[in-house]
């Protein structure tokens, strides 16, 4: 290695066996990094709040919910599930100083479309019977607004959480609009 060369140089050529997705990441990131100027941001979220929302590919939390880089934690999982997000919420609040929680579920959520029995049978079909316990709970929900209310109530009732400013919302994937539920 030539003197002065970085010890871990960035590759400028795509690996020959890279998938389209990997190539896309490398290519788009190169463009992104070329004009990146936010390297000075602090670790704790500047606006001291966190968002729990669904992993749904149609939701762009930064744009739809007005979150600038460095402002908030965004915790995503299937359904925007509060229980699933608890580990991250605890870290966000107790170790990184966030005070307010915004929970956003959405119309057309996959979690409205199956039952535990359905999901268990698909997993058994794909990966083998018994790989998951028959009591495994995917936490699907049949009623969107009720699920928002239930999650907010669950968060409010959780003694380990501090900063109980918690609101619940529904994002409409059809219109891009967000409405408050609780
Ligand atoms: Zn969803």
TrEMBL record:
Record keyword Calcium present: no
EC number per UniProt: 4.2.1.1
Record keyword Metal-binding present: yes
Catalysed reactions, semicolon-separated: hydrogencarbonate + H(+) = CO2 + H2O
One Pfam family here: Pro_CA
Cofactor(s) this protein requires: Zn(2+)
Keywords: Lyase, Metal-binding, Zinc
Positions of transmembrane segments: none
Chain's role: Reversible hydration of carbon dioxide.
Family: Belongs to the beta-class carbonic anhydrase family.
Protein name in the entry: Carbonic anhydrase
Organism: Zasmidium cellare (Wine cellar mold)
